[in-house]
Specification:
InterPro entries: AraC-bd (IPR003313), Homeodomain-like_sf (IPR009057), HTH-like (IPR037923), HTH_AraC (IPR018060), RmlC-like_jellyroll (IPR014710). The two termini are 26 Å apart. The longest helix is centred in the middle third of the chain and has 20 residues. The protein is of the alpha+beta class and 281 residues long. Helix 2 runs antiparallel to helix 3, helix 4 crosses helix 6 and helix 5 crosses helix 6. It is built from 10 helices and 9 strands. A hairpin with a 2-residue loop joins strand 4 and strand 5.
Length: 281
């Protein structure tokens, strides 16, 4: 089956399948849906929230809405993957009620799911069914694929509910150091955050920070800072009545013009697109 992509008109459900020799996500990535990333073959490095995870065949990572993440090549760049994006309301989650089995989705920014072989076979079947429905597009295909995605989430959450809750260990001391810096940036995005200032704060050289930050996260230092700031700005645009200029200042931009330019680079839209209540992409 060749690469395929589907997204409904409201942005609440989407499926993407790719088999590739190599691939780097070209931009930072966050959205208002859960992302279910199923690695069907190969290896990938998956940066999410504050750490990098090496994914292997059969691994699944589920990322909560509005959590910054990015994938890059690992030791085996050739890979096959399926991504399902599903809005909380379509995943069976509402503000008033949440099935107990899905509690792990609400409690964590991301889940790393590594299933035993006998469970993987069932999950592989669900993933294949989702791909086939999207490829064939017979009557009711979106609803059918969505029910399969819901079953996939339930199976993953059942497994997670039986596992320890500690985050994956750092890949190396360098990765742990970069995770510490990422956590600092996540907390202090509104402050001045030049490469030199942060390098001084952590008693390392700007060259070391620039080189290994990119290696550990897939982002350049500036890309990451901008993405964190824009993610928070988007949240404020959608959930507050603050003016654009006030939001720009609040998230750490010195000028509205620079804020507007970076906002469009990261999201593809001008800031007022989200103030007008347009659907998320």
């Amino acid at each position: 089956m060749s690469d395929l992509h589907y997204e409904n008109s409201t942005g609440t459900f989407g499926v993407s399948y790719r088999k590739a020799k190599s691939h780097h996500m070209p931009a930072s990535h966050f959205h208002g849906t859960y992302e279910v990333y199923c690695l069907l073959s190969g290896q990938r490095e998956f940066f999410v929230q504050d750490r990098t995870i090496v994914m292997r065949e059969g691994d699944i990572v589920i990322v909560a809405p509005h959590v910054l993440h990015r994938t890059t090549n690992a030791a085996m760049p050739e890979h096959e993957r399926l991504i399902v994006n599903i809005h909380p309301s379509r995943a069976g989650m509402t503000e008033r009620s949440l099935p107990d089995v899905l509690l792990p989705l609400a409690e964590r920014a991301y889940l790393v799911v590594r299933l035993p072989l006998h469970e993987r076979l069932s999950v592989d079947s669900l993933a294949a069914g989702i791909r086939q429905e999207i490829a064939d597009r017979r009557p009711g295909f979106e609803l059918y694929a969505m029910t399969l995605a819901q079953q996939l989430l339930i199976r993953c959450c059942r497994h997670i509910g039986q596992e320890a809750t500690e985050p994956p260990a750092a890949l190396s001391p360098m990765h742990e150091r970069m995770s510490e810096i990422v956590r600092y940036l996540n907390d202090r995005y509104m402050d001045e955050l030049s490469l030199q200032l942060v390098a001084d704060r952590f008693f390392i050289s700007p060259y070391y920070l620039s080189r290994f930050f990119k290696e550990a996260t897939g982002f350049t230092f500036v890309e990451y800072v901008n993405s964190v700031r824009i993610k928070e700005a988007k949240r404020l645009l959608e959930g507050s009545s603050l003016k654009v200029g006030a939001i720009a200042k609040k998230v750490g931009f010195g000028s509205v013009t620079h804020f507007g330019r970076v906002f469009k680079e990261v999201t593809g839209y001008v800031p007022l697109h989200y103030r007008r209540g347009q659907p998320e992409t």
